[in-house]
Design goal:
This protein is an alpha/beta fold. The chain is 31% helix and 16% strand. A seven-stranded mixed beta sheet has the order 3-2-1-4-5-7-6, with helices on both faces. Helix 7 crosses helix 8. The longest helix has 20 residues. The two termini are 23 Å apart.
């Protein structure tokens, strides 16, 4: 019942959506250039280059209606426009450039227009002009791209052609031939882009040469769209691309782009300025000894009459040990799209509980079991842009909260308790994505980032209960006050845990 309800919501609900028409893009401090050239067809043997440039960003945006293409060589501009216009959601495709390269004949497609922009600059007043901005011209110098930032909507996406392929032989990002690329990724974060992704395409052609592109997301919430699953990508392609169009780009290709190449992670972590924590999640630390499940047992918790089951040490455990890491990879991961569907069904069934239809009660019972499981035994996070949850699939799901700082399994830097924190003041870390805006090390190890890092903070004796710090399980600033007050009530014995 849970799966069938989720599939109904995911497929029928989204397939029924339609793109509303919008007025033509209004001119801003510029005049359309005179029409003196026609859009030309892309040479077929370089088509995939432009698919790799255009479609990942277009699929990431929830509804790209207004798209800008930076003018340059006519073939690059034309080929980029060709891919952009395959998306039925696009109402305006605008070529931005100076007097020389901002010319087009919109008789080829009424959605095409051109704007002359001196130095391709947007002011703050131009905010929200475009959903997606694509620059097919390889950048040769470090630029802060703040102008593009001003032009984009709040959920806007910027795409850049780096004209670079990174290999394991390269020095640290920002050094040598990667100097410009390193500075650009830094600038994008400094300007305000909250999530930056570099993906490489291995297809060969003579147009771009080296294939590597940067996607900069203005909002961290757009990460959930960047990490869309295979079904979601297929749905968006089905909704947006006419069946008469030829397209090599597909969902397996998008899933490949979502994870940076290992060489990108390697050169990123060679940079001595990168926070050690970001690159420290690459696999298990060989210097940290793991306590296996065979050294643990489950029994009645010592944390109170209503605390349920707990985990106990079957042998002495020294300080600084990880616990149960060999099974952590088997955790349940409920990603943002599925999490959203589950919560939407849950609230719908809850609001309609008085309905006499049997299926309402069936949906509520099924979905509430999943919600209770994820809230009672797991933790929520926004690392992937929007709310999602992780639940350990083994014994560690029974780790209870150590009240008043009595926890003995936690991250190295944990020193707060429910009694010492301010419920009205969530920590700054909950309001931002973990790591820098551009962090291929985190991207390649998202699951590791979600399930690792806890170690024993003192020696634990045989028979002693292993206790966690539930403050570390609060993944969203919006949940901080309610969750902290809930823990305070449970520790005071005035409330029951979920």
């Amino acid at each position: 019942a849970i799966l069938s309800s989720a599939f109904i919501a995911l497929f029928s609900g989204r397939m029924a959506s339609s793109y509303l028409s919008t007025p033509r893009l209004q001119q801003f401090n510029c005049q359309p250039a005179a029409a003196d050239s026609k859009l030309t067809e892309t040479v077929e043997n370089v088509l995939f280059d432009y698919e790799a440039l255009v479609h990942p960003a277009m699929i990431t945006h929830p509804n790209p209606k207004r798209v800008a293409v930076l003018g340059g060589k006519q073939q690059q501009t034309s080929a980029t426009l060709r891919e952009v216009l395959k998306h039925l959601s696009v109402k305006d495709a605008v070529i931005l450039g100076d007097e020389e390269n901002a010319h087009v004949d919109n008789a080829v497609d009424a959605r095409i227009s051109a704007l002359e922009m001196k130095d391709q600059e947007c002011s703050v007043e131009d905010h929200g002009l475009f959903d997606v901005i694509i620059d097919p011209n390889p950048f040769k110098a470090a630029t802060d791209f703040s102008s593009y930032f001003n032009c984009l909507n709040d959920d806007g996406v910027l795409v850049l052609n780096t004209n670079t392929i990174i290999t394991h032989k390269d020095p640290a990002l920002g050094i040598g031939r990667l100097n410009v690329l390193g500075r650009v990724t830094d600038f994008l974060g400094e300007v305000g882009y909250e999530s930056v992704h570099l993906y490489q395409d291995e297809s060969s052609s003579s147009d771009f040469g080296a294939h590597s592109f940067l996607v900069a997301l203005k909002s961290a919430e757009s990460r959930a769209d960047w990490y869309s699953n295979e079904a979601e990508v297929n749905i968006r392609l089905h909704q947006r691309i006419s069946r008469s169009e030829s397209l090599e780009f597909d969902s397996p290709t998008m899933l490949k782009y979502q994870t940076p190449h290992k060489a990108v992670e390697t050169v990123f972590c060679r940079d001595t300025n990168v926070e050690a924590e970001e690159c420290g999640i690459r696999g298990f630390d060989p210097e940290v000894v793991n306590v296996p499940y065979s050294d643990l047992s489950v029994g009645k918790s010592t944390m109170g009459e209503y605390s349920g089951r707990g985990i106990f040490a079957k042998t002495d455990i020294p300080k600084g040990r990880a616990v149960g890491m060999e099974k952590s990879w088997l955790s349940y991961f409920i990603y943002p799209s599925a999490h959203s569907i589950i919560m939407e069904l849950y609230h719908w069934a809850d609001e309609n509980e008085d309905d006499e239809e049997d299926f309402v009660e069936e949906v509520f019972e099924s979905v509430s079991a999943v919600v209770g499981f994820s809230e009672g035994y797991g933790f929520w996070s926004s690392l992937l842009g929007r709310s999602h949850s992780t639940v350990d699939s083994g014994l560690m799901m029974f780790c209870n909260h150590g009240c008043n700082g009595t926890y003995n399994l936690c991250p190295d830097d944990a020193n707060d308790s429910e009694a010492s924190v301010d419920p009205n003041q969530p920590p700054e870390s909950l309001s931002s994505i973990w790591g820098s805006a551009f962090s291929p090390a985190v991207e390649r190890n998202l699951r590791q980032a979600l399930i690792s890092g806890d170690k024993t903070n003192r020696d634990i004796k045989k028979g002693e209960e292993i206790l966690c710090n539930y403050l570390e399980f609060i993944g969203r600033a919006s949940d901080w006050e309610a969750d902290v007050r809930g823990l305070q009530g449970q520790c005071a014995g005035t409330e029951l845990g979920e």
